[in-house]
């Protein structure tokens, strides 16, 4: 069984930065894909960023150029560096791990990010 624990959320002013962490425990492969999603009140969950074992990354259009996803495979941890935050970035941010062979997804409990104007 895999457990994901997010941390690093909080309240920040517009233009500020936060760094989220996602610590994975259990049997993890460096080939597993890690993603960050977010969900604002009344809205659907949306993909923020993803990183593969080879370090390939992709981002949602709304965060390109401002957010950076990374991972430390040795520590089974993924990060999301968020810069130039906007009020519309306010949401609960969730970490997701997808097995490299597909079919299985795990989710963290989420961490709240609030950006004040």
Task: Walk me through the topology.
Layout (H helix, E strand, L loop, with lengths): L2 E5 L2 E4 L4 E8 L7 E7 L6 E6 L5 E3 L7 E6 L4 E6 L8 E8 L6 E3 L3 E6 L1
Parallel strand pairs: 2-11
Antiparallel strand pairs: 1-3, 3-8, 4-5, 4-9, 5-6, 7-8, 9-10, 9-11
Structure commentary:
It is a single chain. This protein is mostly beta strands and 117 residues long. It has strands at 3-7, 10-13, 18-25, 33-39, 46-51, 57-59, 67-72, 77-82, 91-98, 105-107, 111-116. The strands form 2 sheets. Strands 2, 4, 5, 6, 9, 10 and 11 form a 7-stranded mixed β-sheet that branches. The chain has a 4-stranded antiparallel β-sheet with strand order 1-3-8-7, with no helix packed on it. A hairpin with a 6-residue loop joins β9 (91-98) and β10 (105-107). 30% of the residues are buried.
The overall pLDDT, averaged over residues, is: 95
Residue share in β-strands: over 45%
Number of strands: 11
Shape: globular
Order of helices and strands: EEEEEEEEEEE
Count of helix runs: 0
Q: What value does the Rg take, in angstroms?
A: 13 Å
Note the main sheet.
7 strands, mixed
Low-confidence stretches: none
Structural class: mainly beta
Portion in helices: under 10%
Summarize it.
This protein is mainly β and 117 residues long. It has strands spanning 3-7, 10-13, 18-25, 33-39, 46-51, 57-59, 67-72, 77-82, 91-98, 105-107, 111-116. The strands form two sheets. Strands 2, 4, 5, 6, 9, 10 and 11 form a seven-stranded mixed β-sheet that branches. A four-stranded antiparallel β-sheet has the order 1-3-8-7, with no helix packed on it.
């Amino acid at each position: 069984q895999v457990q994901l624990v997010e941390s690093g959320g909080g309240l920040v002013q517009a233009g500020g930065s936060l760094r989220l962490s996602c610590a994975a425990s259990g049997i993890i492969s460096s080939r597993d894909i890690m993603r960050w999603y977010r969900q604002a009140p009344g809205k659907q969950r949306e993909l923020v960023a993803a990183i593969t074992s080879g370090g390939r990354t992709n981002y949602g259009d709304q965060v390109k150029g401002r957010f950076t996803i990374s991972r430390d495979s040795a520590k089974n941890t993924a990060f999301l560096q968020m810069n130039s935050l906007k009020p519309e970035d306010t949401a609960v941010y969730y970490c997701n791990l997808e097995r490299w062979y597909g079919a299985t997804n795990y989710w963290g409990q989420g961490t709240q990010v609030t950006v004040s104007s």
